[in-house]
Amino acid sequence: MKCLSLLWFVWQVTSSLHAVQAQTTSNASDLICKPFGTCEPCPEDALHEPFCQPFGNRRLMHCLPISSAPGKDQASGVNPDAAPSALQGETLGWESCGRIVEKERADFYEFFACNLFIGIVAITVVLAQSKRIQAVQARHLAARIGLVRTTPGGWANG
């Protein structure tokens, strides 16, 4: 138990150090980028691009050079009333983003409905087949113990 606690502690410390290091590094392009909008599926012709990996979704980014970045009063992002290219030196780009929750939820319900349908069909087939097998076994038992009805004399000869 102590070994697990020690491993958990070491993992927490290393992950927090990695997070602090990732926050202090700057990108190589000297741009400050802010997400704009929500994640959207990548078009078919852009799925091979790095910003569409690993889930096939992307989000629009507005990037400004560090030298012309807005001050603290404008840190919330681009003015929504302004045109997309209103700030001088602004560059549009894409970032990779995770799964789209609405799409994943719809896929889950579709998966659940298909499984439910297949389950109902399978149970129906099993019940019908078991009834058929039970009827065949009952006929065999009746024939074995002599409970089979004889046909009237006029019907057997045709």
Model description:
This protein has 158 residues and is α+β, with helices and mostly antiparallel strands. The chain has three helices and three strands, in the order αβββαα. About 15% of the residues have low confidence.
Can you describe this structure in just a few lines?
By secondary structure, this protein is an alpha+beta fold. It has helices at residues 2-24, 101-145, 153-156; strands at residues 31-41, 57-65, 91-96. Helix content is 46%, strand content 16%.
Helices and strands, with pairings:
Layout: H1 2-24, E1 31-41, E2 57-65, E3 91-96, H2 101-145, H3 153-156
Antiparallel strand pairs: 1-2, 2-3
Shape: rod-shaped
Number of helices: 3
Element string (H = helix, E = strand):
HEEEHH
Flag low-confidence runs: 17-26, 72-85
What is the mean pLDDT? 74
The helix fraction, in percent, is 40-55%
Strand runs, count: 3
Distance between the termini: 87 Å
Please describe the biggest sheet, giving its number of strands, its sense, and whether it closes into a barrel: 3 strands, antiparallel
Strand order of the largest sheet: 1-2-3
Tell me the structural class. Answer: alpha+beta
SS strand fraction = 15-25%
Rg of Cα set: 35 Å
Keywords:
46% helix, alpha+beta, three-stranded antiparallel sheet, 158 residues
